[in-house]
Write the C-alpha cells for this entry.
Amino acid sequence: MIRLINIPPSWMETQPRVERFAPSMEGVSQGKAPIADQVEFSQEALALSRAVSDSTRRIMRIAAIRDEIRAGTYETTQRVEGAVDRILKLLSL
C-alpha cells in the first residue's frame, strides 16, 4: 500500500505531463513512409502466446464436448463406428 502524506497540491502542477505524439512525418514530402515505432517479441514470448491460445482453445473444446454429452448428442453412430474402426486397426483385426 502506498500512502502519500503532506504533499502540497502545487506538486501535482509542477510535474511533467505525459503527451501522446503522432508518428514523425519527416520525409513524407519526398515520398517516403512516415517513421513509426517497432516492437520485437522474443521467441519465449511467442511460444507463451501460442501456449495460452492452445490452452484456451482446448478448454473451450472440452466445455463443448461436456455440453454435448449432457444433451445426449455426443455419441453419434459415426463417432461410435469411427472408434470401433480405430480399435480394430490397432488390434490389426
User: Anything to note?
Assistant: Residues 42-73 form one domain. The mean pLDDT is 77. Residues 36 and 44 are 25 Å apart (CA to CA).
